[in-house]
């Protein structure tokens, strides 16, 4: 019996290379198929905009691919684990390793090491690439795939209340006095919530105080008439700081940016449980890759000729997908305040670590 957690260097490199190649193969297959299906559903909306063509389709693909890679990387690790371990079992390689004195944890150690590296790379990829792609794609969708806003800090679908009145914007860019809005709509309402006037404008800028809507159209409910308004100032009590706090998209902000947004929300006395849960999940989410070899390990052991290998693979797949279901459910409960933010983000991971270890120890150790 070896006393080291990892097997020999040769065996560690052999298993790690095999694991990485299968993860990449599964990930490429999933992303290509899903990207083609998604592009088929969105290409009509993109090409209907005058001036859009093949270049805009490639732009959409470049923004959507990071999202798909980040979302389906843990699934790829799970499927790669099952494919690899089933193959090793069928070729009696697992039996040979156990006959050499390796425990089940030592057999899986190279997979844990590889998955840990993938989890770190996944976190960095999310922080540097995925958040920026999410922000740009959300802003592009907010303007119906028109000209892409150049500001990387664009926020989409902003809703602001000014007493009874409401100001909405499809996209907001900039900070402080330089804040600018696009696809703006102003609703003037009575005390009982009835809309009496609606003003639409392609853009709005901060007028200090208020927001200047240019080239606007005013619709009056009383006479159902529409008039052109060259410029008008609305929302006298709305400040750029309120606009910045109006909508924070956790998926479009990095870990440190979201920390600052949470601090600003807390200073303003706003509820932060949803943002805090997403903040914790930015750390626990990438660690799902580290969990997959443990949940799929049930497929590595047991005699291949016993007829139970397929059942073991199904059990490993069921455990992996059960984790994703419970993780999403817990995060949703955290968003609604049903769970504390830390528990919503970390409880599924810790729960399935215990489940995976229990299954592995009770069946193989």
Automatic annotation (TrEMBL):
Gene behind the chain: lptG
Protein name: LPS export ABC transporter permease LptG
The keyword Transmembrane helix appears for this protein: yes
TM annotation in the entry: 20-40, 68-87, 107-125, 285-303, 309-326, 338-361
Membrane topology recorded in Swiss-Prot or TrEMBL: Multi-pass membrane protein
Organism in which the protein naturally occurs: Qipengyuania spongiae
Keywords: Cell membrane, Membrane, Transmembrane, Transmembrane helix
Main location: membrane
NCBIfam families: LptG_lptG (TIGR04408)
InterPro entries documented for this protein: LptG, LptG/LptF_permease
Subcellular location: Cell membrane
Superkingdom of the source species: Bacteria
PANTHER family on file: LIPOPOLYSACCHARIDE EXPORT SYSTEM PERMEASE PROTEIN LPTG, SLR0882 PROTEIN-RELATED
Signal sequence extent: none
């Amino acid at each position: 019996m070896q006393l080291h957690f990892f097997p020999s260097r040769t065996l560690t490199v052999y298993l790690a290379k095999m694991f990485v190649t299968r993860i990449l193969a599964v990930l490429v297959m999933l992303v290509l198929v899903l990207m083609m299906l998604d592009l088929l559903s969105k290409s009509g909306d993109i090409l209907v905009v005058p001036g859009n063509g093949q270049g805009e389709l490639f732009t959409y693909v470049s923004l959507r691919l990071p999202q798909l890679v980040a979302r389906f990387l843990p699934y790829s690790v799970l499927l790669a684990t099952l494919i690899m371990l089933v193959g090793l079992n069928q070729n009696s390689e697992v039996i040979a390793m156990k006959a050499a004195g390796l425990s089940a944890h030592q057999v899986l150690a190279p997979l844990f090491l590889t998955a840990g590296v993938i989890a770190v790379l996944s976190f960095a990829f999310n922080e540097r690439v995925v958040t920026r792609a999410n922000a740009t794609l959300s802003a592009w969708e907010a303007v119906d795939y028109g000209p892409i806003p150049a500001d990387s800090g664009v926020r989409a679908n902003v809703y602001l209340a000014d007493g009874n009145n409401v100001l909405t914007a499809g996209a907001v860019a900039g900070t402080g006095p330089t804040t600018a809005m696009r696809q703006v709509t102003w609703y003037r309402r009575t005390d009982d919530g009835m809309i009496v006037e609606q003003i639409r404008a392609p853009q709005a800028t901060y007028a200090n105080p208020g927001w200047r809507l240019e080239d606007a159209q005013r619709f009056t409910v009383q006479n159902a008439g529409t008039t052109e308004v060259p410029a008008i100032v609305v929302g006298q009590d709305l400040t750029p700081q309120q606009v910045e706090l109006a909508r924070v998209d956790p998926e479009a902000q990095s870990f440190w940016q979201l920390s600052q947004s949470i601090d600003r929300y807390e200073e303003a006395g706003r509820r932060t449980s949803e943002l805090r849960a997403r903040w914790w999940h930015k750390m626990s989410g990438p660690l799902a890759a580290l969990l997959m070899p443990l949940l799929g390990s049930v497929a590595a052991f047991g005699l291949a000729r016993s007829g139970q290998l397929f059942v073991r693979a199904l059990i490993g797949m069921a455990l992996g997908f059960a984790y994703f279901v419970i993780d999403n459910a817990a995060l949703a409960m955290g968003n609604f305040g049903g769970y504390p933010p830390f528990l919503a983000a970390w409880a599924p991971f810790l729960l399935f670590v215990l489940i995976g270890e229990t299954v592995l120890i009770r069946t193989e150790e």
